[in-house]
Write a structure and sequence with these properties.
binds flavin-adenine dinucleotide; about 400 residues; eight-stranded mixed β-sheet; FAD/NAD(P)-binding domain; 19 strands; about 30% strand
Amino acid sequence: MATLPPTSESFAVAVVGAGAAGLALALALTRGGVATALVGRHAPVADGRTVALLDGSVRFLDALGVWPALAPHASPLAELHIVDDTGSLFRPPPARFVATEIGLEAFGWNVESARLVEGLRAQARGTENLTLVESDAEGFSAGEAEATLTLTEGGTLSARLVVGADGARSRLREAAGIVPRTWSYPQAAITTILAHARPHRDVSTEFHTRQGPFTLVPLPGGHRSSLVWVMGEGPARRMADLDDAALARAVEHQAQAMLGAMRIDGPRGLVPMRGLSLPSPVGARLALVGEAAHVFPPIGAQGLNLGLRDVAALRDAVMRAVEDGRDPGSRAALAGFARGRRLDARLRTTAVDALNRSLLASLLPVDALRGLGLLAMTTIGPLRRLVMREGVLPRLGAPSLMR
Ligand SMILES: Cc1cc2nc3c(=O)[nH]c(=O)nc-3n(C[C@H](O)[C@H](O)[C@H](O)COP(=O)(O)OP(=O)(O)OC[C@H]3O[C@@H](n4cnc5c(N)ncnc54)[C@H](O)[C@@H]3O)c2cc1C
């Protein structure tokens, strides 16, 4: 690890944002021999949020050397169960997806976000050739051969390519004049961690209710799970006002007492449901990854998995350019990355949006379509396996470190 550059230093790539996406990219590039700086403060992460990392993301973290230390703190998702709790006339029987059916031990692993970020930070601090600049980026300007960042702590830094991994409110995106499309849903998610009397047996269960999905995801030890409970904004605010004992009772009731008596066992959150998409994740000498490039509701464990696919794909594009002696910040070097990421983000955003809206619409034809889709997946083996494989790791151009 190197320290803050004095006034001006030049790199092949400068990554802005020391969250999960930025840290993973900085590590991947440095391990590939690319001169990289990571710009961002290492603030504590303590929101009680967990992320279900799908198989491809875990392979990627393993390739970065981060997974061995994280694995003991992650719970496998061996089965996914979907229960239609909408009260619809076209209510299919519960659907059950089993990872071993597609040759995997687990669809993914659930880990607390704070642990993931800490694990990545520890690896970054121990990586000799990675320059960590513990300051926020204030300004960005793209020149002919390089882009320049100004830092809040003073000084500037130049790179052939600057990457914005600075989250949903990305300052770099704004500075580059990239205008996102944003939207919101009339819902919010209650999030927390629960301790429960009965074991989860590595099963994640999603109840589809009229107000949105209610999802329990296993955590290590067998008797803890994370909760993402999407509901209308008013009910969510009222639920957030309950004390821990009353909230635990409400969760137990919605879970049909499947995991027995429950207790709140972590910080609680109230997350607004909103979305953001971009016409392109690339500008002049700039690429955007993670939530700087796309935001959608916490449904179906997609957000960071998509973010890590951005990161792994950008790593491949930069490595190819550097190996061929080309400029990694040129439009030509980033064209394939931009195309692939636009498509992947659009597919995921559309799928999450369609599922969420289909639950909110109490129209019979919509209910029938959703019910038939779930029923088809339950009864038609090849379709179910195709959906499971695509959900875990889309075949379409999987980045090299995810294969
Ligand atoms: C309730 C909930 C549940 C979720 N569950 C899942 C799940 O199961 N699976 C999944 O894949 N995803 C899930 N997600 C999504 C996932 O949490 C996000 O996609 C992920 O945290 C985004 O990471 P990021 O690194 O892109 O952004 P962030 O975590 O927002 O990191 C951005 C970083 O940039 C820094 N920064 C900002 N501005 C500057 C600046 N000017 N200069 C320098 N640094 C800056 C910030 O301080 C921060 O460190 C969930 C989200 C929610 C809300």
